[in-house]
Write a structure and sequence with these properties.
Shape: globular
CATH architecture: Distorted Sandwich
CATH class: Mainly Beta
Oligomer: single chain
Helix content: 10-25%
Order of helices and strands: HEHEEEEEEEE
Number of helices: 2
Number of domains: 1
Largest sheet: 6 strands, mixed
CATH superfamily: chitin-binding protein cbp21
Amino acid sequence: MLRARKLSLAGIAVGALALAVSTSVPLAYGHGYTTTPISRAKHCANGTVQNCGAIQWEPQSTEGPKGFPASGPADGLLCSAGLAQFHELDDQRGGAWPATQLTSGASYTFTWHLTAPHSTTDFKYYITKQGWDQNAPLTRAALDLNPFLTVPMNGGRPANDVSHPGTLPNRSGRHMILAVWTINDTANAFYQCSDVNF
C-alpha cells in the first residue's frame, strides 16, 4: 500500500514536470516558401531536384536574421538564410536548378504558401542584375538592392496562401529572384530563392 502510494505520487510528479515543460515551449513562428515562381526549397521538397539534404523535408524553414540588405544572412548564404543544414540551396550547381520561364516587363503574380502565418512587416522581391555571375553563390553585389516589388503588411497576419501581383523587371537570360518575408515581432525573416529565365 505504501509502495503503491509512493509510485502514484512519483507518477503525478513526472506528469506535472512534463506539463510544465510542454507549456514552456514557445509557439512556432511563421514559416513558408514561394510557390510561384517555385523556389529552390520547394523544388527539393517536390523531389524535382535531388541531393538537397534536410531542406527537402522542411522547405518552409529558411529563416534568418531580418533587415536585408543592411543586415541578414551573409553574402553567399542568402538562399540558405545562413543555415548550415540548408547549404545545398546556395550551390549554383552549374545552372542545373530548374528555372521558371518569365517574360520581361510582364505582369506576374508571386505566391507563397505559409505553413505558419505570423504578424508580418512586409514581403519584398529582389532580382539579380544583368551580367551577374551565375556560377557564384548569390551575393548582395549580384542583386539590385532596390526591391522591384514591396508588399507592406504593417503587422497584419497573412493567409496561408498569399498572392502578390506585380510587374517583372526588364531582364534577359537566366536570373534569380530573392523573396524576403519579414516577420513583424521577431528578429527574423524568411528567404526564398527562385531560378528564372527571361
